[in-house]
Specification:
The protein contains 15 helices and 2 strands. It is mostly helical and 322 residues long. The chain has one domain: Orthogonal Bundle (P1 Nuclease), CATH 1.10.575. The protein binds zinc ion.
Length: 322
């Protein structure tokens, strides 16, 4: 029993959990659906379960595809200081200046969001049901990642400042404890994004600017709390695991002036707005005609093999880092 607890503790606490965590990603994609206009709801509403569940496919893909990792972040501070003017916002210009190895190694999320966006526009134009669904779920994931401050920092898990675990603390522990209880998700309607490139860069720069507070505020609290009040054992699926205590988590959220909630709300708005804009840019195709279409057997096989690769990769503790 002790061994099981220790294993769980190590995997749940120290593993580098990417992105909003499965909980947050699913929630963001699901809530974004409700910001869409009626012409889009006819398709997204009957498929909301898909949009929600497949919000985490890009994270699962990290176990199967070597090129997946850099699509989720950008260590933007390697390019100098805010607002990082020396870094060209266009991918080809950045590659020309810094070389593709360097650019890819340090993360490509703002560019990959745009790649996915144009794929979605194309899928809408061709009225390809399964691609619209898959690209919407994927795009929702990458757009959400761009809203996480530590996805825009080379100190992504506090490894440089002795704060290991802060990544999952901010993006998983805080929303899992507080989102359902107290976050306000009344957000309004999706908006048309005139320039997807400028839009996502603005969000990335906000994230980069906030990364400093994410780290500093926790460091300040860490000095005040003893280890016994910072961590607690809480039951999860019948097993007690050690994690940041509820009191520590709540105080962190308050000291950050509800930053996790603000970024989550912004992510929901952005995801819906990207979907909406892709539909507009595709000429507002009528979605009624294939709203209740089913995925093909090949699609279902692909989903299953991704799942298997993820489960196997997790068991082996292996994940592509490049
Ligand atoms: Zn991710």
């Amino acid at each position: 029993m002790k061994k099981i607890i220790l294993t769980l503790f190590l995997t749940s606490f120290y593993s580098y959990v990417y992105c909003w965590g499965f909980f947050g990603h699913r929630m963001i994609n699901e809530y974004a659906v409700f910001l869409l206009p009626p012409e889009m709801l006819v398709l997204y509403k009957p498929n909301i379960e898909f949009i929600r569940e497949h919000a985490v496919d890009p994270d699962k893909r990290r176990y199967a595809v070597a090129a997946e990792g850099p699509r989720h972040f950008i260590d933007i501070d390697v390019y100098g200081k805010y607002p990082f003017d020396s870094l060209p916002r266009k991918y080809n210009d950045a590659i020309e200046k810094y070389g593709s190895d360097f650019v890819i190694e340090n993360g490509i999320v703002p560019w990959y969001v745009q790649t996915m966006y144009y794929r979605l526009v194309d899928a809408f134009k061709k009225k390809e049901f399964s691609k619209i669904m898959k690209y919407s779920a994927d795009l929702g994931h990458y757009v959400s990642d761009a809203h996480v401050p530590l996805h825009a920092s080379s100190n992504h898990n506090g490894q440089k400042t002795n704060q290991k675990g802060i990544h999952a603390f901010w993006e998983s522990r805080v929303p899992e404890l507080l989102a359902n209880k107290q976050f306000d998700f009344f957000i309004g309607k999706a908006d048309y994004i005139r320039n997807p490139g400028n839009y996502i860069w603005d969000r990335v720069l906000e994230s980069a600017l906030a990364a400093d507070s994410v780290l500093k505020v926790e460091a300040g609290m860490n000095r005040k709390f003893s280890n016994t009040s910072k961590y607690s054992f809480e039951e999860r699926n019948g097993v007690f695991i050690r994690q940041y205590s509820s009191a520590y988590t709540t105080e962190y959220h308050e000291r950050l002036n509800n930053m996790v909630e603000r970024r989550m709300r912004m992510a929901i708005f952005s995801v819906a707005s990207f979907w909406y804009s892709a539909w507009i840019d595709a000429g507002q195709p009528d979605l009624h005609e294939f709203a209740n279409k089913k995925f093909s057997d090949d699609d279902l096989k692909d989903f299953e093999s991704l799942n298997q690769a993820w489960i196997k990769g997790k068991e082996l503790g292996r994940e592509h880092e490049d």
